[in-house]
Structures are given as C-alpha cells and as structure tokens.
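Students often ask why we bother predicting the structure of a whole assembly rather than each chain alone. The short answer is interfaces. A chain on its own may look different once its partners are present, and contacts between molecules only exist in the joint model. In this exercise we take two input lines together and write out one structure for the complete complex. Read the inputs first and try to guess which parts will touch.
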Amino acid sequence: MLTPPPDAPVLATVRPDWVDNNGHMNMGFYLVVFDMACDTLWADLGLGAPFRARGFTTFAAETWVNYVRELHAGQPLTSTSEVLGHDAKRLHVGLALHIKGNDAVMAYSEQMLLSVDMDGPRASPFVPTVAARVQMLATAHRSLPRPAYVGRVISLPAAKTA
Amino acid sequence: MLTPPPDAPVLATVRPDWVDNNGHMNMGFYLVVFDMACDTLWADLGLGAPFRARGFTTFAAETWVNYVRELHAGQPLTSTSEVLGHDAKRLHVGLALHIKGNDAVMAYSEQMLLSVDMDGPRASPFVPTVAARVQMLATAHRSLPRPAYVGRVISLPAAKTA
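Now the answer. The structure tokens for the assembled complex follow.
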C-alpha cells in the first residue's frame, strides 16, 4: 500500500448531507468518493477525457469496500491507489481513502474494471498506449506489500451462522 | 434469491445527476440505493427508528457490489433481500436491485453489518427482540438457493496478471 504524499490533492470534503443517523459518513457515499479516486488514477493511466473522446471508457464490474474508520463532516479526503493486476481487458485496482495530512487508511476499496468500447458497448482490449501505462504502473507497484484488505471474502464462520 | 413481489415499493428512481459520462448510473451511487434497501430490511428486522431511539444502530463493516446490468435515468428501482448468515453481533445480508415490474437482477450487494451500541460506539450483541427476528428471517431464507454472486473474491487468474 502507498503512503499519500504531502501534496496529495483533496478529492472531496465530507459533506453534511453524506452524514447519516449515526453521525458519520453513510456507507453509501464511500464509492462516490472512490469514484473520484479512480478518476485521478485514470488520468495517470491515460483513461481520462482523451480516451473517452476516442470512444473508449471503463465500466466497473465489481467493487468492494472495507470501512476501516468512521469519517465525519468537514474532513478533507485524499486517496492512494495501486494496480493489483490486469489482463488485456481488465484492471484490478486497490484504492485507499485518507484524511488530508494523515497516512491512516480510513477505507479501502478493491475494484475490477473493464475496458469498454462504447460502440456496443462491449468489452474491448485496452488501446496500446493505455496498456503500456497499465503495465508500467503494475510493474512499479509489484514490489509493494499486498494490503491485508485485498482478496477478502465476506462471510461468517459456518459454525457461527444459524 | 428472492423474486420481487408485484407491489414492491420503489426505493428510488435513477436521478439524472447519478448518470456519468458513460450514460448510465455511476458505480458510486449503487450503494446509496442499496443503503435504502437496507433500511427496508432493517424495518423488518426491528433495526429501524425504535431501535435507534434506544441507542443502538448498525455499522457497515464491508460491502461488495456486483454491477450486473446498466441502469439509466428515470428507471424506478426496487429491491429484494436475504439473510445469508448471522452471529451475536454480525449480520451478513444479500441485496438485489431490480427495475420495478421486472425480476432481473440489475446489481447485487453482499454486506457485513455490525450491531453497535452508540454508547462508545462499540460492537454489541443484538438485543433479544432483534436477534429473534434475525433468526426467524435467516431460517425462512435458509432454503433459498444461494445466489451465484455470494462469496466471491475480486481477482484475476494469476497467469494473466502482469
């Protein structure tokens, strides 16, 4: 997992209307912020506006969120991200949310994204320039310790379920 | 998995501001609707307003979303839900989103929720009336075929990752 740089941009500040009866950010809005984190990573991978202008995009296939610590209104959020795997049409990423200026992981999201040709829409291989950047970032991230959050299954021990 | 009844209430209609550059509901907003689906299930389980008034609530620990089919602005959404497992302090549920009047699963969310005493807040066993309702619903749902969406791990085959 990566550590946020001191100049990490603020993706969003926790909005009062994101806070629920529990006085913390509602679980529903975490993916709204993780989507913003994706946009930042997408720019690095060449998956941003120029890519979309050519008729390509990405669709989320699966997302998973681990709610690590409560978030409260007014907290400025930054993110870190890592490429966990990829093939010709798929990108497996891990994203962490942090409060600006603090390395602690407040939430972690693992996501599987598909490369899509909007002429369909249908799954389609990443164009070569994007594939090269994905490969480069995957190589750079390969030596990072795999976060404990990755590859989990949501379940209760069988003996404890009724 | 359950089939939505004809009189299933509409949780929400896909809002134009939930639609992204891809012309479909952005991945970030699915959990906003699944949270509404939880509220419906919570009322059945006795985890609604009276429970909160006594100082108890639930926190999401982990959520997972499988994006099955695209959703578009104006579509009215309903949900079905099932109890997949539970123990004294935890509830493992599966929720499906449907377009009103259609049984097709548009998205499926698996979630692990914690029973929480707001005096802390700290994890705390479900109060007896809730535990009894959870047990009753879990028993009713035990004979349902387990959805293919449940218990998945987000990953790419090792041979394909770079």
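Check your guess against this: The beta strands of chain B are 12-13, 56-67, 76-86, 90-99, 107-117, 122-123.
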